[in-house]
Specification:
The chain is an alpha+beta fold. Helix content is 36%, strand content 30%. The protein is built from eight helices and 20 strands. A six-stranded antiparallel beta barrel has the order 2-3-7-6-5-8. Strand 19 and strand 20 form a beta hairpin. Helix 2 packs across helix 3 and helix 5 runs parallel beside helix 6.
Length: 391
């Protein structure tokens, strides 16, 4: 059995251990030591990160009470009996302790309010707590968050106990495992008793902050998304920096953000209507100018202004209103339209000429669009004219 420092003292970050065994499996090296600071993960909590003799530990597993450490593939070999220094990534461990203890506290607050916890996921970015019951309303979530923060401020002691099956009624556990011989119970003083094998803080004050950032319905239950500890403080700092930037851009205090955004949305809606009006005017005017500028059956135009949709609309209008065959280029896109297949067969033209003209496109009869691979609008126009004359 490996001596587990993460249980005896979860604040221990570095120890010297003795290598007991080294095994190779599927090209990976696993090391067993007599004692360890590395938590192997479990109960929703991720495994610790860190190094053994400055070599990265990429995974940690527990099997039959023994803790195995997986090293990076190019790690130097260890031998049984060798003394090694192992050290966890302490900031990461502390965040995991904040998150796990914070989850226990939040689950206790939720249960008191009628939302018992079904499952949890303690991720690197956020905490997910799935609970029985309806979806809490926004005001209820805010109240739950305030209750949790009150418990954090009280600096409630966090203790651990080992309980046998015969002594299972010693603590009012939120959820009792179906079968066990020895059970580890994590207690938040006067608040919560949970069966748990994870690492935890000494008191709730070290959690720092709990911020509920989302809630959704899933599998007929509610799933609450929260940021805890360091992640919560990072989130609040990001919100603050965003608020500072918005104050500068919107030229207003954060209390007036909603009002200012509503005003901008109204202005944007007006400008979109105005744009649509002038866009239609631009299409009509340009189409008429192009149609009246030539007596030829074909109108060729390389469009430098407007938008791609305008080019498509102009090409269509030249054919539908002015009965012209139109070839319009916008950037690397082309639009080829015709009043009818009898006048000019656009599908046939693309099939017969795409390869040697180096164009790629398609579409229904009378309206073809695609890509011009090289700047050869003049050559394409000459080929269209030849096809028109042969009809």
């Amino acid at each position: 059995m490996t001596q587990k420092f993460y249980y005896h003292n979860p604040y221990t970050a570095k120890i010297v251990a003795t290598v007991l065994d080294v095994r190779e499996k599927d090209g990976e090296r696993w090391v067993l030591t007599d004692q360890t600071v590395f938590y192997p993960g479990g109960g929703g909590q991720l495994p610790d990160r860190g190094v053994i003799e400055k070599q990265t530990v990429t995974d940690v597993k527990e099997k039959n009470g023994k803790i195995w450490h997986k090293l990076q593939k190019d790690a130097a070999p260890f031998t049984a009996g060798q003394k090694v220094t192992m050290e966890i990534d302490w900031p990461y461990r502390f965040y995991q302790m904040q998150q796990h203890t914070g989850q226990h506290l939040l689950s206790a607050v939720l249960e008191r309010a009628g939302w018992p916890t079904v499952s949890v996921h303690l991720g690197e970015a956020h905490t997910l707590i799935e609970v029985e019951g309806r979806l809490p309303e926004t005001a209820e979530l805010h109240n739950l968050e305030k209750q949790a923060q009150t418990m954090i401020a009280r600096a409630l002691a966090v203790k651990t106990h080992w309980v046998t099956a015969e002594d299972k009624d010693r603590f009012p556990l939120r959820r009792l495992p179906a079968k066990f011989d020895n059970l580890r119970v994590v207690e938040i003083e006067h608040l919560d008793y949970s069966a748990c094998g994870g690492t935890h803080l000494q008191n709730t004050a070290e959690i720092g902050l709990i911020k509920i950032v989302g809630c959704e319905k899933i599998r007929g239950r509610a799933r609450i998304k929260a940021l805890i500890g360091e992640r919560a403080f990072e989130y609040m700092e990001q919100l603050h920096q965003t608020s500072v930037l918005l104050r500068e851009k919107l030229n207003t205090d954060h209390l007036q953000f909603n009002e200012r955004v509503a005003q901008l949305q109204e202005e944007l809606h007006y400008l979109k209507r105005l744009k649509k009006f002038y866009q239609q005017y631009f299409v009509n005017f340009t189409s008429r100018e192009l149609a009246e500028s030539t007596n030829d059956a074909l109108v060729v135009f390389k469009m430098e202004q407007g938008e791609q949709d305008d080019a498509a609309a102009i090409a269509k209008k030249l054919s539908q209103t002015y009965h012209k065959v139109a070839l319009i280029q916008f950037d690397r896109r082309f639009f080829l339209t015709s009043p009818s297949a009898e006048r000019f067969d656009t599908i046939k033209f693309i099939k017969e000429n795409a390869e040697h003209l180096e164009i790629r496109g398609g579409g229904p009869q009378g309206y073809c669009q695609g890509v011009i691979k090289r700047n050869n609008l003049k050559q394409i126009a000459e080929t269209v004219n030849m096809a028109l004359k042969s009809n």
